Amino acid sequence: MTLLTTWPESGPETVVRRTSVPAEIAAALADIGVRYEQWPVRDDVPADAGSETVFAAYAAEIEKLNTEEGFVTVDVVALHPSDDPEFPAKAKAAREKFLSEHTHDDDDEVRFFVAGAGIFYLHVGGEVHAVYCEKGDLLGVPKGTTHWFDMGTNPSFTAIRFFHEEDGWIGTFTGDSIALRFPDFDTIHAGRDA
Prior knowledge:
By secondary structure, this protein is of the alpha+beta class. It has one domain: Jelly Rolls (Sandwich). It is 24% helix and 34% strand. The chain contains five helices and eleven strands. Strands 1, 2, 3, 4, 6, 7, 8, 9 and 10 form a nine-stranded antiparallel beta sheet that branches. A two-stranded antiparallel sheet has the order 5-11. The protein is globular, with a radius of gyration of 16 Å. The mean pLDDT is 93.
C-alpha cells in the first residue's frame, strides 16, 4: 500500500496528512512540484528480474517518459536479501549512502518501483513528506528539492532510474541531521496498515 505521511519539519509529533489514496497522493505532491503516478504492474516480472527483463516489460512506459522528459540514461538498480554473507554489509552501505538529507543540483531524481518498496522523504515548504513507494509507483523529485531516501535495514526492491545527465546520481548533502528526527522505513513499513 502506497502511503503519504506529512509532518511539520519540527518533528513527527503532529501528522498533517496521512493518505493511501493514489489521487490524493498525486494531488498533494503536485502542489510541491513532485510527480507521482502509478504504472501498470507486471506480475510476470519476478522481483529479482534482470535489467533486460525489466526493460522489455516496461518498454512502452519508459519510451513515453523518455519522450516527455528527455532522459539520456535509464538503468535498473536492485537490492534483495540473499544468502551472500556479504549482503548485510552491502545493504547497510547502500542504505547509509542515501539516508542523509541532500539535493541534486543538475538532475531530477526519478524512480519507478518494479518490485519491493522504499521511502522518499521530501523536505519542502516547512514540511516533511514521507512517500512510501512500492511496486507500480513512479516518483519524480525535481532537482534542487531537499530530500533523503530510506530502503530499510533489510532492503528489497528493484527500481528503474531515469537521468538527464550521463553521470547518474550526484548528491549535494546539506549537513542537516533532520532525517534522524523522523520515523525510518522500518517504523513506517511496520505501521502502514494501522
